[in-house]
Amino acid sequence: MLYDCRSLADRxxxxxxAIEAVKNGELVVLPTDTVYGIGAxxxxxxxxxxxxxxxxxxxxxxxxxxxxxxxxxxxxVFMLPKAARELADAFWPGxxxxxxxxxxxxxxxxGDTGGTVAVRMPLHPVALEVLRETGPMAVSSANKTGQPAAxxxxxxxxxxxxxxxxxxEAGACPDPVPSTIxxxxxxxxxxxxxxxxxxxxxxxxxxxxxxxDQEA
Length: 216
Description:
7 helices, 10-stranded mixed β-sheet
């Protein structure tokens, strides 16, 4: 079912349907500030597997986790590095994904993570409204692996079809550049993927960060 969130009535119905679907272990497509994402409850293993299956992706490529609040991050990690907190304070909500070691006690199975998780708080009102009710969601770009990332829910539906229960349409993404990914699990913060936030901006907050093509 596709809901047009540009209409107030449809938006309310769509967000309610998406929240219910996620809580039932089903998949949803929602807008973010980068591209549209396909999401599932991060703590429902079969839902995460369904997400990977829908994309045609294996466990070796675990999905990132989106959160609806900065405070949620504290509950997901064993110990949050100072640089991670500073980057989240500076760039969340926004197009920054940080990779941190997740708390070993977490009852989730995102795939072969090696004990780490990539976390982001998106700057999109629809996504945030859903996430604040569902809690952390495993979210990957809403497309089949190898196909272009969807910049509307309609495009996502063309690729993912009936694998997804609810599609939330909010129009074309204004700036479909992927998030910048920073690895904070080592001694020196390192960019894993260049994206919407340039290294110059990141260095204003964490001066010792190194680029994707540099050695720490």
